[in-house]
Amino acid sequence: MAGYVPGEQINDPGTVKLNTNENPYPPSPRVVVAIQQALTGDILRKYPEPLGDHFRAAASAVLGVPADWIVIGNGSDDLLTVLTRSFVPQGGRMASLTPSYVLYKSLAEIQGATLVSVPFTQYWTPPKPWPVREAHLTLIANPNSPSGTNLRVDALAAFADEVAGPLVIDEAYADFAECNGLSLVGKIPNVIVTRSMSKYYALAGVRFGFAIAEPGLIRELNKVKDSYNADALSLAAATAAILDRAYYADVRSRMIATRGRMTVALTELGFHVTPSQANFVWCRREDRPVKPIYEALKAKDILIRYMSYPGFGDGLRMSVGTPQEVERLLHALRAIV
Amino acid sequence: MAGYVPGEQINDPGTVKLNTNENPYPPSPRVVVAIQQALTGDILRKYPEPLGDHFRAAASAVLGVPADWIVIGNGSDDLLTVLTRSFVPQGGRMASLTPSYVLYKSLAEIQGATLVSVPFTQYWTPPKPWPVREAHLTLIANPNSPSGTNLRVDALAAFADEVAGPLVIDEAYADFAECNGLSLVGKIPNVIVTRSMSKYYALAGVRFGFAIAEPGLIRELNKVKDSYNADALSLAAATAAILDRAYYADVRSRMIATRGRMTVALTELGFHVTPSQANFVWCRREDRPVKPIYEALKAKDILIRYMSYPGFGDGLRMSVGTPQEVERLLHALRAIV
After folding, report:
1. CA dist., res. B113 & res. B109, Å (int)
2. What is the DSSP letter of A325?
3. H-type helices in A117-184, by residue range?
4. Contact A224 B46 (CB under 8 A)
5. I need a labelling partner for A267 at 20 to 30 A (CA). Which of A189, A208, A251, B289 fits?
C-alpha cells in the first residue's frame, strides 16, 4: 500500500504555513502553565492516567456529557484507528463521502477492508443513494475537508438511523462551525463524535483528541486503545485548554473574521470559493490550472495545499492564517493571477 | 474480549509504588530543560515531525545504527500494535513464551488472531519445541517480565533463523541487562528490536518508544503507524534523554546495586528470587500463598504486583525502588512473613 502522506511540515519561520490547518494563534497561556506544572520528576517517570480522568471531568463539565461517555486519544487520528479496529473485520466495508479526509482510505487499507467512497454532489451535499446501509463503519468529516462544508444535524441523524454499523462524525473542525452532532450522541445509539485539539485548541504539536459515545461503546473502545495512549503532558495541556473557553472564543472570532475576508478577496481574484465553516477555504478556478498557482506560492515561501481527486478534479485548500499571513498570501496571489 | 488491565496507577505520594516498573529516580534534568525549550506557541500549535528526524539522528549516534533503521512510537506498546497490524492477518497466528507480557494476548485478540503461548521451562528457558515456525509474528520479551530473565543473543539468533515471520525482541528492559539483541538487526533480516523510554529513561509519563529494523521494514511500519504518533514534547524529551548517557549510566548503577540488595534480602526472608537482569525481581514461595503478602503490603500503602498464570502458578513482582523505598518494603515484609 502507498500509505497516508501528511502535509509538508516546514519549520522555517520565514514560511507562511497555510497547508495543514494549524491554528495561526498560539494556545491559551494557561496551557503552557499547566505543562510547566506537570514538569516534575514524579509525573514524568510515572505512567499517566490510563483513561484520563481529570481531562474527562473537565470535558464533561464543558460539553455537558457524562465523563464516562468520553474516550481519550493520541490525536483524533488515534481514535479513528481505534474505531476501525473495533468495528471493521478484515474484508469488511467502510463508507465515506468523497472528496474528504484521505486518511479514511489508509485506515481501510491497513485493516484489510474496503472503503466505499461515494462522491458528493457538486454542491457538497450527499448523493442518492447514501448512506451505505451495510457498512461496518461510516465516517463523515463534518465540517468536511477540503470543502469546509457542514452537513445539517437532521441529515446526520437520518444517516445514523439508516446504517447498520456505527456512524462516526469526525468533528475535527466542528468548533469553527455553526452546528455539530454532539446532541445526537446518546439519542441515537450508533452515533460516535470525534474531536481534535489540533485545530481550534492550537495543540497539533501535543497530539490530543477524544471521542464521545454511549458508555457501553466507550467501555469497549477503552479495551482497544493503548492503555496509556495519552501522555501526562498532553493530558495536562488538553485539560487546561478545554477549560479556557474565553481565550478560544476570542481566537475563533478573529479566525472567522479572517475567513470572511479571505473568501471575499479570493473571489475578487477570480477563485470559486466554497463557503466554509472550518478554518480553511477551498478554492477552484475555471480559467486556468491551479497547480501552477500552488507552485508559484511555494516558490515565494507560502505553503498551501494542492489537492487532486480522481473523477472530481483539483483545487487549492488554504488555511485561515493571521491577518498578516493572509495579506502576504493575497499579495502574492495578485501578482500570480 | 476482556482487554488488557494495566497496573494500578496511584498518585498518593505516601504510597511506595513498586508495581509497574517505573524508574524510582527522575529523568535527566536535561529532559526538563528540553521540554521547557519546546514550550513555545509555535511548537505547540504546529504538527510535530512525522518520523521524528531529530530523535532518529540522536538515537542513531548513540546506538550506532543508521537513522532510517529506526521507527518512533507513542510508547513501545504503540509499536507492538503497529507490528501486529503490519504482519498478522485476521485469523493469523502469533507466538510468544509464557509467562510473559500479558499485552501480547490482548494484541492478538484485538487483531482477531490467535496467540500460541508456549510455556517456559521451570528455569525460564525456552522449551522444546520452540519457536513456532509458521507464526506470522513471534514476540519475545527479553529481559522477560515477570521473571527478569534474559535469553542469550545466540539463542535469539537461532530462533530468528527458524521462524517464517518476523521475530520481535521486546527490549523494554534491555538497558538493565548484560546483553541485548541490537547486533542481530541487519544481520538477520527478520529481527526487529523494540525499546521503551518508560523504564531506563524514567519517561513513562511521556510515552515514547522506538523500534530498530532493516530500512525496508521501517518504511512499511511508517505507513502503518499514525502519521503524528509522537508529539513534539515527547520527541524533545526523548532526544535529550538518549543523549545524556552519563546521567543514566549512574542511575543504572544505583538500581543494579539495589536490585542485588533486594535479591539477597528477599532470599533471606524465604522468597525464591529469580536472578534478574531487569528493574524488578520475581519472587515465589513454597511455604505459604503469596497473594496475602501482596494484600498485606497494600494495606500498608506498599504496592507491588501479584501475578497469577494458569498452569504455572503465581508470584510477586517487585520493582526496584530507591534504597528508602526498598527499606520500607523489606521492613514491612519482615513483619508479614
Report:
1. 6
2. H
3. 153-162
4. no
5. A251
* CB neighbourhood size of A234 (10 A): 30
**Residue-level pLDDT at A307:** 96
Q: What pLDDT, on a 0 to 100 scale, did the predictor assign at position A254?
A: 98
Check whether B310 has a pLDDT greater than 90.
no
Q: How many angstroms separate the CA atoms of A46 and A34, rounded?
A: 17
Give SS3 for A53. Answer: helix
Give me the interface pTM, i.e. the ipTM.
0.96
* Chain A residue with Cα closest to B28: A41
* pLDDT tens readout for residues A279-289: 999 999 999 99
Q: How far is A44 from chain B (nearest CA, A)?
A: 4
B232-243 vs A232-243: helix crossing angle, rounded to 10: 150
Beta carbons of B41 and A27 less than 8 angstroms apart: yes
**pLDDT class for A246, splitting at 50, 70, 90?**
very high
Cell of A272: 470559486
* The three cell numbers locating residue B273: 528470587
User: Pairing state of beta strands A191-196 and A167-170?
Assistant: parallel
Q: CB distance from A206 to chain B under 8 Å?
A: yes
Number of A:B CB contacts under 8 A? 205
Q: Write the residue in A26, A43, A89 that is nearest to B112 by C-beta.
A: A89
Q: Over chain A, what is the mean pLDDT?
A: 97
Region B199-228: what's the mean pLDDT?
A: 98
B112 touches chain A (CB under 8 A): yes
> Is the pTM for the entire model greater than 0.95?
yes
DSSP for residue B26: P
Candidates A18, A233, A234: best to mutate against B (most CBs of B within 10 A) is: A233
Interface test with B, best of A8, A11, A21, A44 (most B CBs within 10 A): A44
Q: What are phi and psi of B310, to 5 degrees?
A: -55, 130
Which triple of cell numbers denotes residue B173?
Answer: 528492559
Distance of CA B85 to the CA centre of its chain: 20
Contact with chain B for residue A224, Cβ under 8 A: yes
pLDDT at residue B307 tops 90: yes
Which pLDDT belongs to residue B2? 86
Å between B251 CA and nearest CA of chain A: 13
User: Is there a contact between B99 and B115 (Cβ–Cβ < 8 Å)?
Assistant: no
Q: Do A45 and B202 touch (CB under 8 A)?
A: yes
| Gap from A25 CA to chain B (nearest CA, Å) | 8
**Sheet hosting strand A209-212, strand order edge to edge:** A70-73, A209-212, A191-196, A167-170, A137-141, A93-98, A114-119
pLDDT digits over A291-312, tens only? Answer: 999 999 999 999 999 999 988 8
* Nearest CA among A232, A4, A168, A2 for reference residue B225: A4
- What does the DSSP assignment read for B294-322? HHHHHHTTEE-EEEEETTTEEEEEEE---
At residue B311 the predicted structure's pLDDT band, cuts being 50, 70 and 90, is confident
Which amino acid does the sequence have at A132? V
CB atoms within 10 A of CB A194: 27
More confident residue, B4 or A318: A318
Percent of chain A scoring above 90 in pLDDT: 95
* B7 has pLDDT over 90: no
